[in-house]
Design brief:
The chain has helices at residues 11-15, 56-65, 75-90, 101-111; strands spanning 27-30, 33-36, 41-45, 118-122, 131-142, 146-157, 162-173. It is an alpha+beta fold and 184 residues long. Among the domains are: 47-116, no CATH class; 128-173. Helix 2 (56-65) packs antiparallel against helix 3 and helix 3 packs antiparallel against helix 4 (101-111). This is Fibrillar collagen NC1 domain-containing protein. It comes from Haemonchus placei. Pfam families: Peptidase_A17.
Length: 184
């Protein structure tokens, strides 16, 4: 195996990589996300969702295929769409049944904040040098329909300047409860 296209966020490391093994660009895909080595940021993108008529299958593929987010940082944006998929299941839609006009409008409304969404996030959560303290803030919320959690790290510099960054986030549509059968 011929390893090549090395890239680092450190200029010192990049200088020590042989020219033939160094990446030609300062941007590359890592875990399916765009990484900018100079700014040391990752870019999360949600592609345009294209479907003339939405079915349960196309809605599912749009949620899972158009917005690749292995770190789950965009999960709070996706939770309404996931809840809507559960509603389609409860309404007994088949995988290829075209949604009613009302349901298609609801789908468009629930995904409008996701379509074409793009954000650059710093890869580093906290700086190593010049910091006096780190604080982790965990936010949790739940309802009958969904639950979510996000973790933020606040770094305080020696000069007293505070900076907060998202560490991770998770959200999930609550499981559909099955009706209980009683024998008696």
């Amino acid at each position: 195996m011929n390893l090549r296209d090395y890239l680092s966020n450190s200029a010192t490391v990049n200088k020590n990589i042989a020219e033939c093994g160094r990446a030609a660009s300062t941007e590359m895909k890592v875990l399916g996300m765009q990484w900018n080595a100079i700014e040391d940021t990752i870019t999360l993108r949600c592609a345009e969702m294209r479907a003339n008529k939405t079915s349960r299958r196309t809605a599912f593929s749009q949620i899972n295929g158009y917005c690749y987010d292995p770190l789950d940082l965009l999960s709070p944006l996706m939770v309404l769409a996931k809840i809507f998929l559960q509603d389609l299941h409860k309404q007994k839609y088949g995988w290829d049944d075209v949604l009613t006009e009302k349901d298609q409008n609801t789908w468009r409304s629930n995904t409008s904040n996701v379509i074409g969404f793009e954000v650059n996030l710093p890869r580093k959560v906290a700086e190593k040098s010049g910091t006096s303290s780190h604080t982790m803030l965990i936010l949790v919320d739940s309802s009958k329909r969904a639950y979510a959690c996000s973790i933020h790290v606040t770094t305080t510099s020696c000069q007293g300047i505070k900076e907060t960054k998202v560490f991770t986030a998770k959200s999930k549509a609550a499981p559909i409860k099955k009706e209980q059968t009683y024998f008696g």
